[in-house]
Amino acid sequence: MSSLFEECIEALNPKVLVLKNDEGKIVADTFLKSVKQTSWGRIDWHVCPMIFQTCKFSELEAFFKKEKWANEELYIFG
Hints:
Elements: H1 4-12, H2 21-34, H3 57-66
InterPro entries: CdiI_EcoliA0-like
Pfam families: CdiI_ImmP
């Protein structure tokens, strides 16, 4: 029987990369510094410069074909 963590990783993608604790902390800290949060710990969407809402994967796919992915930009999926 596998652990819940292993099941979650397997469900995400067979090529998912699990970071070591220190690497994961660096990523989490960078994320928290980059994204404004409400006092209760949610993303404050009101201060995001651009919001694209969709419920269809095809629309999301079209968005990324049109927009160029840039390393200095942060994309948040919720």
